[in-house]
Specification:
This protein is mainly β. The protein contains 8 helices and 35 strands. The chain has a 4-stranded antiparallel sheet, with no helix packed on it.
Length: 668
C-alpha cells in the first residue's frame, strides 16, 4: 500500500553502501568524515525496484574505497560523488553518468573534498579541508568549510569565513544553500551546531534555526520538504557522528528551541543533550514496529513521507517511512545504506545572481575587494542601551587556526593545541579597527573580505558596551545591511532616512598599535610593569595581596595572567563555566554586563588616585582591548615561536601539521 502513494513516482534510488569509519575517536562530529578515518568497501549504487530484491547497479568504484554523500543532477543524468580510493589519503570529487559511464575526477590533491551539490548555474558547492584549519578544541582534526568550483573542478574558492566546520550543503526550494555550522565565538563549544543558509555565490550568510538553542545538540543532514518552508534534519550529538533522531524545523514559527521544532522519530531521544523541557512530536499517532536505535540521512518526499536510513541490530537499512512511524524496508546492503535519494528529474531552484567580485585564482589572483556593512540603527533591539552612548563600532578578526601541535591540553577549559586562552578553546584575535557611530545610530563601513569578524559597540573610551557572540563576514564586493544587535529575521530594516546612506563607506581606523594580534605579554604585562610595579612587584607592600610579577604559573600560562583572569579581576566572560544545557548561556548578553565596562582591572587603570598618575591613553586602550577580546593569552607571534610538531607517523598524514611554519590560506 505504501508504494502506491502518488509521491512514489520513481522506481530507482541512488545511495551509498559504506562501512563505518575507523580510527581514534572516529565517532565524533568533527572526525568521522576525515579521510584518515575512511575504510574501503564502499559502493555507489542505484537500486531499480523499491524492494530488497530489486536490481542493483554499481556506479563506482573501480578500485576499493570509501564514499560520503553523493548528489544527482537536476535532469537525473549525472552523479557527483565524494570518494577516497583505498590507496590515497583524501576524498576527492568525481562525476559519473547515471548509467555508470563517463567517470571523471574533478578535484585532486591532499585535501578532503566532500558532500558536493550541483548549483543551478552549473557550479558545484562542497565541503573541504582546503582551508588547512584545525578544530580549535580538537587540534588533531581537520576542519571543513564550504567551497565553490566550476563544473569541471577548476577555480576553487573558499566561501566560508569561519574556522570550525561547515557540513553538508543542500539546496533549499528558494535557491539558498542550507548547511550545518559549528561555532563557538565566546561561547561554550559543546552545543551550537545549528542550521545556516548562504547564497549560491557565498554571500548573505544567515542563521536559519538554532544558533541559541541547546536542543537538539546538532542539526545536520538538512533537506527541504517539497512545496514547504520546513526542513527535515537529523538531530545528532556533539560527541558522535551524524545519526540520532529525525526532526523538522519551521523558521516561520521561530528560530530557536522550542519554536518551530518537532520530532518525527519519537522512539529515539535527541542524543547527548538530554531530554528537553518540551519535546513536541510531529505526529501524536507515531508508532514503531521493532527496536530502532538511530536514524540518519532523511530525504523528504512530501509533508509526511520520506526515505531514511534506520539502524537495527547494528546495521543501517533503507526504509520508506512516514511521520506516523509506518515504514517499509527497501534495501539492506553489505554494510550500511546512507544518503538515499530518488533518481528522477527535479525542478531546478532559482539561479541567484552572482554578486561577488571574484578575485581570480592561481597566478591571476588579485587582492579581493572589500565588503560593505551598513546598519541603520545599532540601538535597534537593545532597549537598555541609552541612545547616544555608543561612539564607535569595533571590528575584531579571529584568525583561522592553521597552526597545530597535533596534541591537546584539556585542563581545565583549554582543549587546544596550541592553547590560546585559559578560558576556552579560543582563536588568535586582532582588532582591525573602529568606525564612528552616527548620532542616529547608523554605521556604514567597509571590511576586508573572507574574514571571520565580530563587532562590539564602544563608548567614548573604547570600552565594550555590547559584544557579538557569533561571527560574520563578507565576500569581495558584497554589501550587507543588518538591524541592530538582535536582528529579527522576519523584519526588514526600518524605512527612514539615515545619516550615512549618501556618504562613502568609512574605512576602519586601526588602533594606535596597528593590527597586530592581541596577547597578554604585549598588551598587559608591560602596562602592569610600568604602572603597578612599585606596589605589586618586588618589595611592594601590596604584592602579598596581588602579585603582578611576571613568573611561571599554570601550564603555559604565566602569572599574573591566570590570577587576573580566573580570579575575576580582568572581567572576562568565563564561557566554559556557563551551564551547557541552559539556552541563556548561548544568547547575546544584555549590554553593560561583561568585559571592560565591568572590569575591576580597567576601573583601577582609570583611577588616577590609585595609580598616582594618569595612565597613558594608548596603554589604557591596550588594556581595554585585551579585556574586550576576552583575555586571550597568546597571539600569532607566540604560536609561530612554537616548533613544528614531529612524531612517528607524521608523514602518513594527508596534511602535515605545522605551527611555526603554519600556512596562511587565502579566502575566498
Amino acid at each position: 500500500i505504501a508504494f502506491k502513494n502518488p509521491l512514489i513516482d520513481f522506481d530507482e534510488i541512488l545511495f551509498i553502501d559504506n562501512p563505518y569509519p575507523e580510527g581514534a575517536e572516529w565517532p565524533h562530529e568533527a572526525r568521522h568524515r576525515n579521510g584518515m578515518m575512511a575504510v574501503p568497501g564502499g559502493r555507489l549504487l542505484v537500486l531499480k525496484g523499491l524492494h530488497p530484491s530489486g536490481e542493483l547497479r554499481k556506479l563506482m568504484p573501480e578500485k576499493p574505497g570509501s564514499f560520503w554523500r553523493p548528489d544527482l543532477s537536476f535532469d537525473a543524468t549525472r552523479v557527483l560523488a565524494s570518494f577516497k580510493p583505498h590507496d590515497e589519503k583524501s576524498f576527492h570529487l568525481y562525476e559519473i553518468n547515471i548509467d555508470g559511464t563517463g567517470l571523471k575526477q574533478l578535484t585532486f590533491g591532499d585535501y578532503d573534498d566532500l558532500d558536493p551539490i550541483y548549483l543551478p548555474d552549473g557550479h558545484i558547492m562542497f565541503s573541504t579541508s582546503r582551508c588547512n584549519t584545525y578544530i580549535r578544541c580538537m587540534p588533531y582534526t581537520y576542519a571543513y568549510v564550504l567551497a565553490r568550483c566550476d563544473p569541471d573542478g577548476d577555480n576553487i574558492y573558499l566561501v566560508s569565513h569561519g574556522n570550525e566546520p561547515d557540513w553538508l550543503p543542500t539546496l533549499l526550494n528558494d535557491g539558498r544553500v542550507i548547511y550545518t555550522r559549528w561555532e563557538y565565538t565566546d561561547k561554550a563549544l559543546w552545543r551550537i551546531q545549528s542550521l545556516w543558509t548562504v547564497n549560491q555565490d557565498g554571500t548573505n550568510t544567515s542563521v536559519f534555526w538554532g544558533n541559541q538553542s541547546v536542543w537538539p545538540d546538532m542539526l545536520v543532514e538538512p533537506r527541504p520538504i517539497p512545496n514547504s518552508n520546513r526542513v527535515m534534519f537529523t538531530g545528532a550529538a556533539h560527541h558522535n557522528w551524524f545519526d540520532g533522531s529525525i526532526g523538522i524545523v519551521d523558521p516561520n514559527k521561530g528560530f530557536n528551541f522550542p519554536e518551530g521544532l518537532t520530532k518525527i522519530t519519537a522512539d529515539v531521544p535527541w542524543p547527548e543533550c538530554g531530554e528537553p523541557p518540551l519535546d513536541p512530536i510531529e505526529s501524536l499517532s507515531y508508532h514503531t514496529a521493532g527496536a530502532y536505535d538511530a536514524y540518519k540521512s532523511p530525504f523528504p518526499l512530501g509533508e509526511e513521507d520520506f526515505l531514511v536510513s534506520a539502524r537495527r541490530d547494528g546495521k543501517y537499512r533503507l526504509y520508506l517511512m512516514d511521520v506516523h512511524g509506518n515504514r517499509e524496508l527497501i534495501y539492506q546492503g553489505a554494510h550500511h545504506i546512507w544518503h538515499a535519494m530518488p533518481v528522477r528529474p527535479r525542478q531546478k531552484p532559482l539561479t541567484q545572481s552572482d554578486q561577488v567580485a571574484w578575485p581570480g585564482t592561481g597566478a591571476d589572483r588579485q587582492d579581493p575587494q572589500p565588503g560593505i556593512f551598513f546598519s541603520p540603527n545599532i540601538y535597534e533591539g537593545v532597549p537598555d542601551l541609552p541612545q547616544g552612548m555608543v561612539k564607535h563600532l569595533r571590528v575584531i578578526q579571529m584568525d583561522s587556526k592553521t597552526a597545530t601541535t597535533w596534541t591537546r591540553d584539556i585542563s581545565p577549559n583549554w582543549y587546544s593545541g596550541p592553547v590560546v586562552s585559559i578560558l576556552q578553546a579560543d582563536g588568535v584575535k586582532r582588532i582591525l579597527g573602529t568606525v564612528p557611530v552616527q548620532p542616529d545610530g547608523s554605521v556604514y563601513f567597509q571590511v576586508p573580505a573572507g574574514k571571520a569578524l565580530h563587532f562590539q559597540l564602544l563608548d567614548e573610551q573604547y570600552r565594550a558596551l555590547q559584544t557579538m557572540r557569533s561571527f560574520s563576514g563578507l565576500m569581495p564586493g558584497e554589501r550587507r545591511s543588518c538591524v541592530g544587535c538582535h536582528e529579527s529575521h522576519s523584519r526588514a530594516p526600518i524605512n527612514r532616512p539615515y545619516t550615512m546612506t549618501q556618504q562613502t563607506p568609512a574605512e576602519l581606523t586601526p588602533p594606535p598599535w596597528g593590527t597586530e594580534t592581541i596577547s597578554y605579554t604585549k598588551f598587559v604585562q608591560p602596562v602592569l610593569d610600568r604602572y603597578c610595579a612599585e606596589c605589586h612587584q618586588g618589595e611592594g607592600e601590596a604584592k602579598e595581596k596581588l602579585d603582578l610579577t611576571f613568573r611561571p604559573g599554570t601550564g603555559v600560562f604565566n602569572e599574573p595572567y591566570a590570577s587576573l583572569v580566573m580570579g575575576g579581576i580582568a572581567g572576562a566572560m568565563l564561557v566554559e563555566d556557563f551551564d551547557q544545557r541552559d539556552p541563556e548561556s548561548y544568547k547575546t548578553f544584555r549590554p553593560l554586563q561583561h568585559l571592560s565596562y565591568t572590569s575591576q582591572l580597567i576601573d583601577v587603570a582609570m583611577d588616577e588616585e590609585h595609580l598616582g598618575r594618569k595612565m597613558d591613553p594608548v596603554d589604557l586602550r591596550r588594556l581595554i582591548a585585551w579585556v574586550d577580546a576576552n583575555c586571550v593569552y597568546r597571539g600569532e607571534e607566540d604560536l609561530r615561536s612554537i616548533p613544528d610538531p614531529d612524531f612517528a607517523g607524521i608523514e602518513e598524514l594527508p596534511i602535515r601539521p605545522l605551527c611555526m611554519n603554519a600556512p596562511i590560506i587565502e579566502r575566498p
